[in-house]
Amino acid sequence: xxxxxxxxxxxxxxxxxxxxxxxxxxxxxxxxxxxxxxxxxxxxxxxxxxxxxxxxxxxxxxxxxxxxxxxxxxxxxxxxxxxxxxxxxxxxxxxxxxxxxxxxxx
Amino acid sequence: xxxxxxxxxxxxxxxxxxxxxxxxxxxxxxxxxxxxxxxxxxxxxxxxxxxxxxxxxxxxxxxxxxxxxxxxxxxxxxxxxxxxxxxxxxxxxxxxxxxxxxxxxxxxxxxxxxxxxxxxxxxxxxxxxxxxxxxxxxxxxxxxxxxxxxxxxxxxxxxxxxxxxxxxxxxxxxxxxxxxxxxxxxxxxxxxxxxxxxxxxxxxxxxxxxxxxxxxxxxxxxxxxxxxxxxxxxxxxxxxxxxxxxxxxxxxxxxxxxxxxxxxxxxxxxxxxxxxxxxxxxxxxxxxxxxxxxxxxxxxxxxxxxxxxxxxxxxxxxxxxxxxxxxxxxxxxxxxxxxxxxxxxxxxxxxxxxxxxxxxxxxxxxxxxxxxxxxxxxxxxxxxxxxxxxxxxxxxxxxx
Lengths: 106, 400
What we know:
The complex is a heterodimer of chains A (106) and B (400).
Chain A: E1 3-7, E2 13-17, H1 24-30, E3 50-53, H2 58-61, H3 66-72, E4 82-84, E5 98-100
Parallel strand pairs in A: 1-5
Antiparallel strand pairs in A: 1-2, 3-4, 3-5
Chain B: E1 5-9, H1 13-24, E2 30-35, H2 66-71, E3 74-78, E4 81-85, E5 90-93, E6 98-100, E7 103-106, E8 110-112, E9 125-127, H3 131-141, E10 146-150, H4 154-165, E11 169-173, H5 186-198, E12 202-204, E13 209-213, E14 220-223, E15 228-230, E16 233-236, E17 240-242, H6 245-249, E18 258-260, E19 271-273, E20 278-282, E21 287-289, H7 294-308, E22 320-325, E23 328-333, E24 341-345, E25 354-360, E26 363-370, H8 373-385, H9 391-394
Parallel strand pairs in B: 1-2, 1-7, 2-3, 7-19, 9-16, 10-11, 10-16, 11-12, 18-20
Antiparallel strand pairs in B: 4-5, 5-6, 8-17, 13-14, 14-15, 20-21, 22-23, 23-26, 24-25, 25-26
Helix pairs in contact in B: 1-7
């Protein structure tokens, strides 16, 4: 089964098993990954599921949509490969993916 | 040595977050999450939107899946609590059983305000609060052609948009002079009025419901000036009332909600509370406020979990809200109470994206942002930090 690694701001690693049909945010909250809140439930309304995708993976998982871009544009921790994980429908092809978590979700 | 038990009454947004946060705060005792909807805690906002329109299943709305609760050793208990005995630390359930607690959390939520009109108990009159409510509405909508919605607030307008998507003729009855009267500036009300009219919804303002009539089920809604509107289904969305009875009966301080301090503690040091059922003295606003907001419920729950775990967090976040109607995403930052100036960015009489900024004495205090997430995030930050803003900071061309 495909496994993704979340790396917390202070470097701690958490692995979660991907489930098709879920967003990466759902995978994280169902697996109790600290640092992903997903307060709005996946409507791209709150911006509390921000992750930074390992640049090597950005071609596979894709870059942010214009809507995500609007939500992330004010974020001081924004990186070129930043995404809202609620907008990332997971795929089995993501086995081995690493995403970093920001210090604060806002 | 006995293990401490934390019991949470209410398994919606606040309760589910509180249970999860307790584990994050390293609470190592037992956790019992008591709900009475016999469902895994689910997201309520999509009920009037995607769920009503048939675009999502209840499983898709789960806040966290069933496995999460098992893995985190959180017991989900389907029961109704009848009474809290604070002296013995015992809850009495409606089936007569008791549950002991060392620490108790009240996430009692709110319920739909009932329409006090003759005929409001007829078949075909619905309220919209739970997944079960929506399933009944969806079922009735399959054979209905005319829907009347009583109340032009967020729930009423979201429901109107979803029922239009299902192909019904929809009439919204609003008692005041404009929709969203209680929460937005006239310009924003006019915008949503226009959008709904363009979508084919008939909106009647100043419309007081005199009676709901029908032989065996609803047939007509009668207005105060005598007009009758045909209705196969009626959905009432006239606000909510906090569920405070259990707390009041247990002798806790209640004042338009279970009163909590900035650490989410009630008047009993072993009982915290979070969500729609609470009222809280917000330093930012200098008054006691009861919020009906998913993000606030989540924040209060996180603070309450810290308090139970012997840590110290404070309720401090700026209140915010969102609503989806048609292709529009409305995001609201802050409370606009007491505004003395409105600045518009974009033209709400023409566009489908704009922001309405509310200022008091030149300071930004709130913003309604339609399809403008960037303005929303900007406003949230500026309002939270009380940064001075110029008119030119607010009026700008959106990024896309």
